[in-house]
Specification:
Chain A: This is Ribosomal RNA-processing protein 43. Chain A: Pfam families: RNase_PH. Chain A: Keywords: Cytoplasm, Exosome, Nucleus, Ribonucleoprotein, Ribosomal protein, RNA-binding, rRNA processing. The complex is a heterodimer of chains A (413) and B (249). Chain A is of the alpha+beta class and 413 residues long. In chain A, a hairpin with a 7-residue loop joins strand 1 and strand 2. In chain B, strand 1 and strand 2 form a beta hairpin. In chain B, the strands form two sheets. A five-stranded mixed sheet of chain B has the order 1-2-3-5-4. Chain B is built from six helices and nine strands, in the order ββββαβαββαββααα. The chains are: A alpha+beta (413), B alpha+beta (249). At the A-B interface, helix 7, helix 11, strand 13, strand 14 and helix 13 of A face helix 1, strand 9 and helix 4 of B. Strand 14 of chain A pairs antiparallel with strand 9 of chain B.
Amino acid sequence: MASSATAPTAPPALSLPPSQFARLQPHAYLLAHLSPPASSQQPSIRANGRAPSQFRITSANTGSLTHTNGSAVVRLGDTTAVCGIKAEILHTEDIASWSVSHASSPSAPNKRRKLTNPTEKPGEDRQDGSSQAEDDDDNSYIEDFSLLVPNLSLSTGCAPGFIPGAPPSAHAQSLSHQILSLLHSSRLVRSEDLQIWYQRPNLGPEELERHNEDEQMDVDSAQDGSGGVASEVREIKAFWVLYIDIMIISLAGNPFDVAWTAVLAALRDTKLPRAWWDADNEAVVCSDLVSEARKLSLRGLPVSSSFGVFEADAASGWRAVIVPDAEEERKIAESDRKGIQRRWVLADPDGYEEGLAQERVCLVVDKVQQNGKIVIVKLEKNGGFAVDRKQMKELVETSVRRWQDINQILKEC
Amino acid sequence: MGGPIASLHPLSRADGSASYKCPATGSNVLGSVNAPIELPGRRDALKPEDATIEVFVKPGTAPGGVGERHIEGILRGALGRIILGREKGYPRRGVVITLAVVGCDNIARGSSYLPILPALLHTSILALLSASVPLSMTFSATVLAVDSSGEIVCEPSSTDAAAAASLHVLAFTSQGHLLLNESEGRFDFDTWERVYERALAICHGTSALGSDGDVAMSENVDAQPLEGFVRDTVEDHIHREYAWKIDAA
């Protein structure tokens, strides 16, 4: 042929370009990157050029959607999520169990702590360790009346496997559930931010005075010394319900981290208008002054970090006899330190690595602002034998470093 | 409060089945396993060299929702590592595990599934054993609650679980690996380590791993280790099944 005649100098090489090798032998490809031959003097690095405990570049942008109360776009490498939060009003009359269970609990207003200053930044709120009982009471509203409604959609054509317009896959449903249960268990949103009150006029002089002050509706008169009188006549008339919609517009692994970061950023951005019950109209009225709208005061900043475990032995998952017991496992870990490594814990696995990592770890940590104590909000590990106590400790440390990074990113956005 | 009660093969038409009842948490689960079976649907999209594991969870009184999808994913992850899906006859076929929650307190939207997760795990491992699905090892699981004062409550009732500061489910394989951990609530790493120790003691007894049979128990573990419970249930069942042979001998 003509081509063979024109290029006689270079014999046809029997080598594959790296991209083809990666597709044909994904396991061997990643393994070759992570354990390069000693002679090559190359560092152990992932196929995507990251160190094992390195996360992808993260960026966040808030307030891009104007028709929402709060929104955020978060990008983690090639995985991108958009989150929009829309607040709607739920009247207590529409809650079937309301009049029976909650309507007139006289102790509730007294227990309430004074409301946060609206100018305070949400990230710098105080910690709630001292007020445990109050929080339990506080949180039951959010759980009982489903005041937070997250929904995650993967059917956006975000990855080849997901067909647009298809019903939510089991994976998407599972992610929605994880976000909801994390919102509940981390008690991120304060229920008092979502309450809309009615102050029945008690025709006292301080009532008029209160209106003159540039104060919010919710600010309890307990502060100005007349709590006993006024608290009797306050009642919750409605709640804000936050619809948290997350669209993964591009998926390249690790959807939970990016979705949760987007929820965090959007909640920090969320502003609710000042709302009160108007007795004459028998309706909730919202103020359209932007200056009166206030941000949510979130409890802490739980940051999620996910990990995948890559095993050097491709057959370790299914060869029955080979699986060593826990004692041997520890000895192998010893030998790991001396020489050959057998497994790698990869932080923030991308789509390629996720397909190769059976074992997953997801950690959500928060740092208490006052004393710098580390609180774990969620710790999940599934699908493998590699991560035990010792490795878990290291992962917690990695997650704490990640917390710092995300905290910085969210502050700047 | 007694230990858990389990029976193997209560259903006659399934390949394998088990029922499991835990009086402490009030959960009662019936599970069936069909394996290996031909699955309908496109096979080329799945891993051809491995068995497909399908898990279905049906709550007692309500249609399944997103919470069930999540727990199914957790169960599939844990069981997928135990089931030897590449043994002869299994590749390209399905292992279908169906779990019906017969009795338990209602699980509301968005609330935690963790209190009944050990029951689901135990039911599925027993049903898999009863269906003679090849497994690399067995496991046992337990749920622990930590209350606000830092006290650990084993196998909490639903009221304890609701009041707890954090809830933890840990599953250990028969070889002592931590197979699964699901923790939620606010806790620190030291608490988790205490929970880990306690859960390991509940699942395996406090003796060193690998010693056979006689397990020295500490005072805070009042029952038989759960790993032994799985073993005994299967042993009893086989003993009953082969009674005719044993009698004849």
